[in-house]
Write a structure and sequence with these properties.
This protein is mainly α. It contains 4 helices and no strands.
């Protein structure tokens, strides 16, 4: 997942990597299923959060998604700067 995410981020807006996009779309759908199965307790891994964050606009307005993001940050251990590579600011 990480390599696919990096390829998509590194490509220009006109140069979408279809293989990487397919991997990421499957991953975000799988992550969302996990969150929905345990909407009040599932905690995403750092890698899952990176993918979920990349697709955050897909979950705009979802209270379940907002709680999942909040749980990630509440339970994240380590230096937040290690997540800089996953920022959605492009």
């Amino acid at each position: 997942m990480s390599a696919a995410l990096q390829r998509v981020r590194d490509s220009g807006s006109d140069e979408v990597d279809p293989a990487a996009t397919l991997v990421l779309e499957k991953a975000v759908n799988d992550i969302w299923k996990k969150v929905q199965a345990k909407p009040n307790s599932y905690i995403m891994s750092k890698e899952e959060f990176a993918v979920f964050n990349y697709y955050q606009s897909k979950f705009e307005g979802s209270e379940v998604a907002q709680r999942a993001i909040s749980r990630f940050w509440t339970n994240h251990k380590g230096d937040a700067s290690t997540l800089d590579q996953y920022d959605s600011d492009q």
